Amino acid sequence: MKIADLIAQLQTQAQSELDKHIRPGQRVAVLDFPYHANAGDSYIWLGEIAYLKRRGADIVYVCWDQAYDPERVKRAVGPDGIVLYHGGGNFGDRWSEPHKLRLRVLRDFKGHKLLQFPQTVHFDHAENIAETARLIEEHGDFVLLARDHVSYQFAKTHFNCTVGLSPDMAFFIGAKAAAGAVCDGLVLARTDIESAGAKAVKNLPLERLPGRWRRDDWLVPDWFEVKLANQFHKLNAPLNRWTWGGRLMASLATAVAATRLRRGIRQLSQGRVILTDRLHVHILCLLLNKEHVVLDNDYGKISTFHQAWTKPSELTTFVDSFDEAVATLAARAPARSL
To answer: What is the average per-residue pLDDT within 138-143?
Structure first.
């Protein structure tokens, strides 16, 4: 399938699910802006804002986790607005801090419609599943959008709420152009708790790969990004006192996220082909129309997403081991390297 057709298809699928719950002109609050430098979460944010603008929603409040103020949220959205929680891969106890805030929001907004943008759902401990299920039950008007079939079935089994299936919101960014490659390949690998142990991409020796390769991750911000993020941090709480301030914060948050998108495009442009175990490297490679080889993270997040949504693309090759990655990349290496 042509990548433009796949992007359009995934946008349509996500929009059809979200349009059931969000009305044109409706006041919305978007919680848990990704203040951290992990670029992939900012791509989700950009897609969320792009969808809301397309839908004609009125974004009156945004915040990062430390600036969350439930009373201001309630004043901003009013009785007919909707509270939206940022999507991604942290619905569960693997990343405890974002989920703690999510559980707090469930407590604070009982009976007030709350929608979770598409998430991967993953828990390591049964007691945390039970606590989450109890708070969802007590809330009474929670919509959970899952971004793969495994997460969808888990949520349907464990949680008494409206559950939908939707692609990741980053596809609303749309197609982008990469710059010219300067090396044969780039390894952009996880270095955090989702790395797959001994099989983690970060452990693959570059000398095993054909041609000239570089290694990187996208957790280090550039100076302009830091400057913008610090302004967002400084102004977030005080400006959210007013509706106009919330709208301004939405614009500033989007500007921060956009600098991270530009950084990611610069990084991925370096290599003729990309090797990764990050989901949003996979997604950004698709948006850039760039070939890439993928090893999964430690609990299968990328492969379940790929099976659900991106399998029609010929740009992606999934492999199960270092040896398979090396063989795949050797088979597609050009006669002359850069």
So the answer is: 97
d(CA 38, CA 88): 12
CA distance 47 to 141: 24
Tell me the CA distances in angstroms from 65 to 48, 69, 241, 262, one per residue in order.
Answer: 17, 9, 16, 24
What's the pLDDT tens digit per position in 78-118?
999 999 999 999 999 987 788 999 999 999 999 899 999 99
pTM given for the model: 0.92
Instruction: Name the CA radius of gyration of the chain, rounded.
Output: 20
What gap in Å lies between CA 28 and CA 257, rounded to an integer?
19
Residues 111, 62: contact at Cβ < 8 Å?
Answer: no
Q: What string of H, E and C letters represents the secondary structure of the chain?
A: CCHHHHHHHHHHHHHHHHCCCCCCCCEEEEECCCCCCCHHHHHHHHHHHHHHHHHCCEEEEEECHHHCCHHHHHHHHCCCCEEEECCEEEECCCCHHHHHHHHHHHHHCCCCCEEEEEEEECCCCHHHHHHHHHHHHHHCCEEEEECCHHHHHHHHHHCCCEEEECCCHHHHHCCCCCCCCCEEEEEECCCCCCCCHHHCHHHCCHHHCCCCEEEECCCCCCHHHHHHHHHHHHHHHHHCCCHHHHHHHHHHHHHHHHHHHHHHHHHHHCEEEEEECCHHHHHHHHHCCCCEEECCCCCCHHHHHHHHHHCCCCCEEECCCHHHHHHHHHHCCCCCCC
Q: What are phi and psi of 307, to 5 degrees?
A: -60, -35
Overall size of the chain counted in residues: 338
pLDDT at 67: 84
CA 162 to chain centre: 21
